[in-house]
């Protein structure tokens, strides 16, 4: 099995096999800072929760989805709580038929099982059966349904400062007017630009940021009441109600489901 601590030289060249699969299993959080490499990368998990970030946005990823990042795109990743997952590194020439932009794809049983099989390959040239299975994996990455970014980030530097501050502290309850003053932008411009650059109103975007952080905290075994208070909800019942309306289940049931396989589908509406 390819180890999760692969030699960086292996993923910074397209020489060698068309794809390399690294498997990871740990009981504690694992993270990687901003970096890039010349191979495309598919992140996925069999158990636990991942957060993946690129310049355009951030995803919180359960076992039902995987994230594709094309070659040479700066990205970062962090797991939350116990985690068992994989990364598929695809040689740059083979990425021409794959999505050109970072995206979330819905995991199929075929992709999951083929990837698990590929994780058992020794590093080195692929034999004929392995080449055929590699082709199946590439076909699945290229044809499975994609989902939009979980939390798009604005491009305007003033709005980006606000977004980054809210990601760092989702419980910050300053009003739109207070944030506009802090970022030296008019209320009207902040409101209009947030919609045009992210597709969401400022209020809805902040709500999504809080819910994404709630998913991470659930994976880290934080009690539901503690999550509600930490994220600035007036009462735990307010948080539970919003969570249920968004994900279709209570936070406690969600935690139970993503700790197993397959996890519940995450679709923040």
Automatic annotation (TrEMBL):
The keyword Transcription applies. Keywords: DNA-binding, Transcription, Transcription regulation. PROSITE patterns: HTH_ARAC_FAMILY_1, HTH_ARAC_FAMILY_2. SUPFAM superfamilies: Homeodomain-like, RmlC-like cupins. Pfam families: HTH_18. Residues 160-257 form the HTH araC/xylS-type domain. InterPro entries: Homeodomain-like_sf, HTH_AraC, HTH_AraC-typ_CS, RmlC_Cupin_sf, Tscrpt_reg_AraC-type_HTH. It comes from the Bacteria. This is AraC family transcriptional regulator. It comes from [Empedobacter] haloabium.
């Amino acid at each position: 099995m390819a180890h999760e601590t692969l030699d960086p030289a292996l993923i910074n060249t397209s020489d060698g096999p068309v794809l390399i699969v690294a498997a990871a299993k740990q009981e504690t959080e694992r993270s990687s800072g901003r970096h890039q490499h010349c191979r495309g990368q598919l992140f996925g998990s069999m158990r636990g929760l991942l957060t993946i970030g690129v310049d355009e946005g951030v995803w919180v990823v359960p076992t039902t989805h995987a994230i594709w990042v094309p070659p040479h795109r700066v990205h970062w990743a962090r797991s939350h709580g116990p985690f068992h997952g994989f990364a598929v590194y695809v040689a740059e020439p083979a990425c021409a038929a794959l999505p050109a932009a970072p995206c979330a794809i819905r995991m199929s049983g075929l992709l999951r099982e083929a990837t698990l099989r590929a994780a058992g390959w020794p590093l080195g040239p692929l034999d004929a059966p392995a080449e055929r299975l590699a082709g199946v994996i590439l076909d699945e990455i290229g044809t499975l349904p994609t989902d939009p970014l979980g939390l798009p980030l604005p491009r305007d530097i003033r709005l980006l400062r606000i977004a980054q501050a809210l990601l760092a502290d989702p419980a910050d309850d300053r009003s739109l007017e207070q944030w506009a003053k802090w970022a030296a932008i008019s209320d009207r411009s902040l409101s209009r630009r947030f919609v045009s650059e992210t597709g969401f109103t400022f209020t809805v975007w902040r709500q999504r940021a809080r819910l994404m952080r709630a998913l991470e905290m659930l994976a880290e075994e934080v009690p539901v009441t503690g999550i509600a208070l930490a994220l600035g909800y007036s009462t735990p019942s307010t948080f539970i109600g919003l969570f249920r309306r968004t994900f279709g289940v209570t936070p406690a049931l969600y935690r139970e489901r993503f700790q197993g396989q397959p996890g519940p589908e995450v679709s923040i509406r």
